[in-house]
Amino acid sequence: MTRHLSASALILALTCATACSRHAVEEVETKAPSPVSTITLAPQTVEGVVAASGMITAAPGADWTITAPEHARIAEMPKAEGDRVKPGDLLVRFEIPSLHTDVATRRAELQAAEARVENAQASVTRLTTLFEHGVAAQKELEDAKRDLAEARAAAGQADAALRNAQQIESRTVVRATFAGVVARRAHNPGDMVDASKDDAILRVVDPDKLQAIASVAVSDLARVQPGQPVRVLVPGSEEPEPGKVLTRPAAVDPTGVAADVRIAFSGATRLAVGTPVRVEIVSEQHQHALAVPPGAVIHEDEDAFVMVAGADNKAHRRKVTLGLTTPKLAEITSGVKAGENVIVQGQQRLPDGADIAPAK
User: Fold this and answer.
1) Three-state DSSP class for residue 284
2) pLDDT tens digit string along 320-357?
C-alpha cells in the first residue's frame, strides 16, 4: 500500500513538473517586444528662455498727450484720429482771452519801464555835464544814477514778465514736434477743457518707434541682460517678431514680484500701442548640444537615466548628466553620443535589456 502511494505521488509530481515547465516555456516564447518610439541624437541649439507678459508702448519721446494750459475753449483741431502728422503741423489752437490780455498788459508795462530808463539815462547825462562844470551838486548826480539803476531793474523785471506771459500764450497753439499718428482724439472744436492730465485732448505717437515693456519676475531678472535676443509673440499669430533687451531696472522693489524690462524691435512692427503680448527672452544658448524631450529622462533620487535603443533591438539603460533644461528640451552633457537612438515613449518601467520594437 505504501509503495503504491509513493509511485502515484511520483507520477503526479512528474506530471506537474512537466506541465509547469511547458507553461513557462510558452510564456517566454509568446512574450512580445515592448513597442517604443525613439529619436536619433543630433547636435542642436538649446535655449534657456525667460517668459513674461508685456504690452506694446511707444519709446520715450515718441508718445505725446496734449492737455490745455488752463481752462480753455478749443478753437481749432484739424487732425482726426488715425491721421498722420509731420513736425510743425497744427494740432490744437485754444482760445484763452485772459492770456491775450495778460500779454498786452505786460507789453505796456515793459514799454513804460523802458521809457523810464530812457528818461533816467537822459537825466544822468545832463547832470554829469552840469557837475563837471560845477553847476550841479554831487548828490543830485548820485540820485540820478540811483534812479537809472532802479529803472533798469524794473525794465528787466517787466521784460521777464512779458516773456513769461508770451510763453504761456504760445501754449494756446500746439504744433507737432515729431512725425507720427493721432492715436486718440477725445474732444472737438468748441469743447471747453480743463488743465488736467485726466482731460486729455489728443495723443500722438510715432509708430516707427514702438517698444514692448515686459513684466519679468524678480527671480528671473538675474538672467536678463541688455542685448539678449527676444521673441515677441502675439495671441492668434504664429509668427513672432524679433527684438532685443534694451534696458532692465537698475534697482527693484524688494517687496515686489516683477519688474519692467524694455524691449526694442529689430525693425518696424505691425503691432499697435496697447497690444498685449507674450515675450521670450533668450537668456542662454548652448550650441551643438545633444538634447531629448524632458519626458524621456528617468529620474531616480539624484541620478538621471535614459533608455537607448540598441542595434540588438534591446533597451539599454544609461546614466546621463543633464545640462540646460527647458520646458521643451533637456540637454545631455555626458552618457550618450550623437547618432544613438534614445527612447522617448514607452521607456517608463522598461527593464535594462528588455526586448523592444521601435516604431518605424
Assistant:
1) strand
2) 999 999 888 999 999 999 999 999 999 988 999 999 99
Phi, psi of 196 (to 5 degrees): -145, 145
Tell me what pLDDT residue 235 has: 77
Predicted local distance difference test score (pLDDT) of residue 282: 95
Task: Retrieve residue 246's grid coordinates.
Answer: 534694451
Buried b (16+ CB within 10 A) or exposed e, 321-333: ebbbeeeebbbbe
Q: Quick one: 38 and 105 in the same domain? A: no
Domain endpoint, select from 112, 147, 171: 171
Distances (CA, A) of 349 to 35, 128, 201, 352: 13, 115, 68, 9
Shared domain check, 159 and 45: no
Helix (H, G, I), strand (E, B) or coil at 119: helix
Residues 347, 224, single domain; the answer is yes
* Confidence label for 26 from pLDDT (cuts 50, 70 and 90): very low
The span from the CA of 63 to the CA of 228, in Å, is 25
pTM: 0.63
Per the structure, the complete domain to which residue 150 belongs is given by 97-171
Please give the Cα distance from 186 to 191 (Å, whole number): 10
Closest to 260 measured CA to CA, from 41, 3, 57, 30: 57
Q: Is the pLDDT of residue 135 over 90?
A: no
Comparing CA positions, the residue from 6, 7, 10 lying closest to residue 18 is: 10
Tell me, what CATH number does 308's domain have?
A: 2.40.30.170
Confidence category of residue 11, pLDDT binned at 50, 70, 90 = very low
Last residue of a domain, one of 186, 205, 224: 205
Q: Are residues 75 and 85 in the same domain?
A: yes
Is 331 found in the same domain as 281? yes
